[in-house]
Amino acid sequence: MTSAQRIWLSPTAYERLQQELTTLRELCANEPGGDSSDENLTAIKRARQSRIQQIHDLLINAVVGEDPPDDGVAEPGMVVSVRYDDTGETETFLLGVRGAEHGDIEVYSVQSPLGSAILGARPGEQRTYRLPSGAELSVTVLAAVPYGMHTAEANG
């Protein structure tokens, strides 16, 4: 992530990422140095450094706890319900950022095929997107509510 695009995160996801970053930095600081002939150890170090950079980029561009307006538009921070037009099945998910898990709700990024297709859609709008297999799928947006409102409704 090299762009300065603002990234919506819930306060819980932000805190989890902060904790993961702290843990990874501690692991890196306490790793034995020297022997670069151990390929497995080198791969682990690279993976940790990569994840540290990824989390850092997420956190530095994060918009935390600010729900988008309740205007029904599918955008980051909104919980979106869609109907798959070919099967009639429905799915509800958070339009957010992968790598920052948001509890027990599925997360689709705006870079995913479905996420990019529905970005900016309002309830009743149909959008089509291409699957990795090349097949096209159509969905109709049923609802889009801010994450904070969705969690308040879910908690009753």
UniProtKB/TrEMBL annotation:
Domain (Transcription elongation factor GreA/GreB C-terminal) ranges: 71-143
Keyword Nucleotidyltransferase annotated: no
GO molecular function, one term: translation elongation factor activity
Protein biosynthesis listed as a keyword: yes
Any one biological process term the GO annotation gives: regulation of DNA-templated transcription elongation
InterPro entries documented for this protein: GreA/GreB_C_sf, TF_GreA/GreB_CS, Tscrpt_elong_fac_GreA/B_C, Tscrpt_elong_fac_GreA/B_fam
Alphabetized SUPFAM superfamilies for the sequence: FKBP-like
Keywords from the named record: Elongation factor, Protein biosynthesis
TM spans (from-to): none
UniProt-recorded name of the protein: Transcription elongation factor GreAB
